[in-house]
């Protein structure tokens, strides 16, 4: 394993040289972020969302969708591992053996107490700067989903969906019951 650079800041390729220890490693603005494995609520929401999106995407041959862990290199100083990634059929050229090299069509993040400020702050800004058109944030504790669309400079909130609501993404005709995401 190649040693990680510590004195000149981290670069995108450093995520490929991290330990295989269950933690998630991301490089954002040349800084290394390490996050321990997520809890059950996080994974339950992610699995439910991924299953619904993947079934829709694959049966209609709309592109590729995968859950974490998957490396997404946005630029030389930003390489992340989002919870869910969708790349449309028209943009599969950004997919390589190691992961995604460029902006996916959709990134979804599931909040946890340790990642909440990062997912709503620096990562959201980096995703917007990279040109990711759609960004979804799921909150297992609040049992809600927020859908964002990329505007001229930043993400605009499309809507917030909570208990009893049905989410209908702009990206594809699909109905997702928010209650079903967490069982």
CATH class: Alpha Beta
Query: How many domains?
Result: 1
- How many helical stretches? 4
CATH superfamily: tt1808, chain A
Q: What is the element string, with H for helices and E for strands?
A: EEHEEEEEEHHEEEEEH
Number of strands: 13
| Shape assignment | globular
Order of strands, main sheet, comes to 3-6-8-9-10-11
In the predicted model, the low-confidence regions spanning at least 5 consecutive residues are none
CATH fold node name? tt1808, chain A
The largest pleated sheet is described as: 6 strands, mixed
Oligomer: single chain
Portion in helices: 10-25%
Question: Strand content of the residues, in percent?
Answer: 25-35%
Average pLDDT value?
Answer: 92
* Structural class determined from secondary elements: alpha+beta
The termini sit apart by 41 Å
Q: Which architecture per CATH?
A: Alpha-Beta Complex
Spatial extent as radius of gyration: 16 Å
What does this molecule look like?
The chain has 183 residues and is of the alpha+beta class. The protein has one domain: tt1808, chain A (Alpha-Beta Complex), CATH 3.90.1570. 21% of the residues lie in helices and 33% in strands. It is built from 4 helices and 13 strands. The protein has helices at 40-59, 116-120, 122-130, 178-181, and strands at residues 24-28, 31-35, 63-67, 71-75, 78-80, 84-88, 99-101, 106-110, 134-139, 144-150, 155-161, 166-167, 176-177. The strands form 4 sheets. Strands 3-6-8-9-10-11 form a 6-stranded mixed beta sheet. The protein has a 3-stranded mixed beta sheet with strand order 5-4-7, with helices on one face. A hairpin with a 2-residue loop joins strand 1 and strand 2 (31-35). The radius of gyration is 16 Å and the shape is globular. The termini are far apart. The model has no long low-confidence stretch (mean pLDDT 92).
């Amino acid at each position: 394993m190649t040693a990680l650079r510590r004195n000149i800041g981290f670069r995108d390729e450093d995520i490929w040289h991290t330990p295989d220890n269950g933690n998630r490693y991301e490089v954002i603005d040349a800084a290394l972020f390490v996050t321990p494995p997520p809890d059950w609520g996080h994974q339950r929401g992610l699995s439910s969302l991924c299953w619904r999106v993947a079934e829709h995407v694959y049966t209609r041959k709309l592109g590729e969708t995968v859950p974490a862990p998957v490396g997404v290199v946005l630029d030389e100083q930003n390489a992340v591992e989002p919870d869910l990634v969708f790349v449309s059929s028209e943009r599969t050229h950004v997919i390589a053996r190691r992961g995604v090299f460029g902006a996916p069509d959709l990134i979804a993040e599931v909040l946890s107490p340790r990642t909440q400020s990062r997912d709503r702050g620096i990562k959201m800004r980096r995703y917007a700067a990279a040109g990711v058109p759609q960004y979804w944030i799921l909150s297992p504790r609040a049992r809600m989903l927020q859908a964002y669309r990329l505007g001229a400079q930043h993400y605009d909130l499309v809507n917030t969906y909570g208990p009893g609501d049905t989410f209908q993404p702009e990206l594809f005709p699909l109905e997702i019951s928010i209650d079903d995401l967490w069982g």
